[in-house]
Structures are given as C-alpha cells and as structure tokens.
Amino acid sequence: MPDALVLAGGRPDPALGEGIPNKAFLPLLGRPMVEFVLAALRQAASIRRIALVGPLPFPPAVAAAVDVTVGEGGTMLDNVAAGLDALGGAGPVLVAGADIPLVTPRAVDAFVRAAQSLDAEIVYGVVRREDVIREFPQARKTFVRLRDGTLTGGSLILMAPQAFARARPVIERAIRARKRPWELARIFGLGTLVGLLAGTLRVDGLERRAAGLLGVRARALICAGPEICMDIDTPAMLAVVRERLTRDPRAPSPRHAEGMARW
User: Fold this and answer.
1) pLDDT tens digits for range 204-231
2) For the chain, which domains are there?
C-alpha cells in the first residue's frame, strides 16, 4: 500500500488570494484548499501514510490530518525529494498537488489500483479533453494533441523513490530549457518535438522516449475522472472549482468526501 506525498509549497500568488503563504492555503468554504486533498487521501482505502511538504508551521487542522510534515525547500523537485526522504520507504509513493480540491477518495483509489497494475516505475495521470469539457465546460486547460486523443496532465503521479532519483537530473534539465525550444529539441529529440506540434505522436511513443531519457519505466494512465486535473492556477479556474463546491452536494469536503470521478 503506497504512502502519499502532498506538495503544498510555492510562492504567494496575489491573483488567487492575499494574506496566505501560497495557494494551497486558499480558503474554500472556510477551509484551506489543501484540507480537501488531505481528506480525500485520508478516506482512500489505497493510501497508508500521508506526508505534507510546505511552509511550516501548518495550521493545526492541516497538521492533524497528516502523518509526516516537512518544511518546503527551494524548488518543487527539492520538495519532492525532501518528502520522499521523510517518508523513508522503498515502495511506491503517490505524489499529489495541493491544488486539486475536487479530487475524491474514489478517484485516488482508482488511480492507485490502475497504476499499480502497470509495469512501470513512474505513472502519470492524464485526462482526455472531452472528459474535462463534459464535466467542466468552463475550464481552461492546456491540452496536447496526440494520435490517441487530446490530453491534459493531472496532478497525481505514482512513483518509486529510486526512479525519481534516477530521473531527476533530466527533469531539471528540461525545466531549465522549457523556454528554449532548441535546447528542448536537444534533450527530447527534434522528431519528438515536431511530432508533438503535428499531433502525430502516440502515447506509447512518448512513454518509450521518456523511458530512454529518464532511465525509468514510465507510463501515462488515461483517467476518465477530470477531477484529478482541475488544479487551481488561475482566478478563472478558482471560480470554476468554487462554483462546483458550492452547488454540488457530491463535491468532496473535509467532512463529506463522496466520489464524482467516473473510471
């Protein structure tokens, strides 16, 4: 049974809220957003311990909802490494963003179950565009067009700690080069970038390329439940999520987390 690591670090974003350490602590229905994610993980049957990385000290209710607390570091990858070290296990860890308050215990369990059935060291959840638009027509997401469909990334990743350690140098290179197309082409290969732009690549082709680059067995898991990709990074996305939490009695909350995900 995997542990979970929730990433609640980062800088303040005045566009999303003032007077809080960062968006993970944005109030939703009177509670910090991260509490919704922690509640879904705590109620999931597939999760053992929960670690939270972020700005210490945490609010008492947040600290009480986790097993391990870790102070944030300099970068997101630093936070992942610190969280994995604090958990100290060799088994897989579910890494989740703190900004997906619509995630449900059912969605967590379905993702973990499906990810563990794959022969992979890192499994990344993705969602088809039509599934996002059907449930959240006002959502504005970034999508990648592939031959398998048009997909967006989610905020759930199941990974082996040793695989993260092997892959981290290449991930750091890609992050540094993200605004320099030719440097990205050197890392991923010009054919891969052209295929992405043309929409001719397949998911399994990207998986093979990622495996070759990162030195790990990596898979993408297409999930039907769009809640895993409803991360709040703009005021517009915040409005969409707030509207759903306010009107939908099925929406997860720290007190009542029933599933909206369809897998």
Assistant:
1) 888 888 888 889 999 999 998 999 999 9
2) 3-247 (3.90.550.10)
